[in-house]
Specification:
The protein is an alpha+beta fold and 268 residues long. The protein folds into two domains: 113 residues, no CATH class; 141 residues, Mago nashi protein (2-Layer Sandwich), CATH 3.30.1560. The protein is 30% helix and 31% strand. It is built from six helices and nine strands; from the N terminus they run βββααααββββαββα. Helix 3 runs antiparallel to helix 4 and helix 5 runs antiparallel to helix 6. The longest helix is centred in the first third of the chain and has 22 residues. It is elongated. The two termini are 34 Å apart.
Length: 268
């Protein structure tokens, strides 16, 4: 199991994963104020270009960078396995091609994300404090509902020092209505082992790299929204994922819903 640390370099954070025998530089660089989904991660090649380019003349360095970037795009185009709609890819390509129109669109998108934190998208729809106000080091909120039904289950897990908590709320709410009908609400402690199991399942689902919404919807089934918040020193990040029916996060949700809640505590 790898531990993760963040190194601040000129306003950017470098994500480094390591364990007792291995050091793995993931090469993820991103600004503190940009959400992980808005600027999802600049790839390792950009770090390599910077390091390998040091000590060379300007023209040689620029030529080397151009060559690496061209090879990177060629690799993506030939693999057919990379999401070219990803904002990091589109931003890099716009920069290389000096596409000012797309760069302006990207800048507007980032500014909107920076000014409107992820969990604020639900501040009028969830009668609970936002995750950044919980004074927690790490927190996740799972919001589950049947498609089209006005009933919701919001389950929040949080970690602060050696304390691990689970907060549960069932409520009814009509979209646009200022009122909430709280049906059941309670809080309880969970063990460190339970927290670590759930946290591992969330990370195995690649939560921090998932898109906010995949645009896939149906006429029935269920909706699941997961909001995440993480803080370590000066570093903060947040993300949310909204999905219909089965998702990458289903395994984590089932463990939370059926493993950490008793039958008489949950709705289903």
């Amino acid at each position: 199991m790898y531990n993760t640390s963040y190194l601040k370099i000129n306003g950017f954070f470098l994500e480094i994963s390591y364990n007792s025998t291995n050091l793995r530089v993931v090469g993820n660089l991103f600004r503190q104020h940009i959400s992980s989904q808005a600027m999802r991660k600049i790839r390792l090649f950009s770090l390599a270009v910077f390091i390998l380019g040091c000590g060379q003349s300007s023209s040689t360095k620029q030529g080397f960078r151009d060559t690496v970037v061209e090879r990177y795009f060629a690799l993506i185009d030939s693999s057919g396995m990379y999401d070219t709609s990803d904002i990091s890819y589109k931003t890099l390509k716009a920069y290389v091609q000096n596409d000012t129109t797309l760069l302006r669109k990207t800048d507007s998108f980032i500014r909107e994300k920076h000014n409107r934190q992820n969990w604020e998208l639900w501040k009028d729809d969830i009668p609970l404090p936002q995750l950044d106000s919980l004074n927690a080091e790490e927190a996740y909120r799972f919001i589950f509902s049947l498609q089209g039904a006005p009933a919701y289950e919001a389950i929040t897990i949080s970690k602060r020092d050696s304390a691990f908590k689970l907060h549960y709320l069932t409520y009814r709410h009509q979209p646009g209505s200022p009122t909430f009908d709280r049906v059941r609400e309670f809080e309880k402690n969970i063990s460190k082992e339970q927290w670590e199991t759930l946290s591992n399942k969330i990370h195995e689902a690649d939560f921090w790299n998932l898109k906010n919404d995949n645009g896939y919807r149906g006429w029935d089934g269920s909706d699941l929204t997961v909001i995440g918040y993480y803080k370590s020193g000066d570093f903060k990040r947040s993300n949310y994922v909204h999905r219909w029916a089965n998702t990458n996060l289903t395994n984590a949700f089932y463990f939370l819903y059926q493993g950490l809640l008793n039958k008489n505590e949950r709705q289903f």
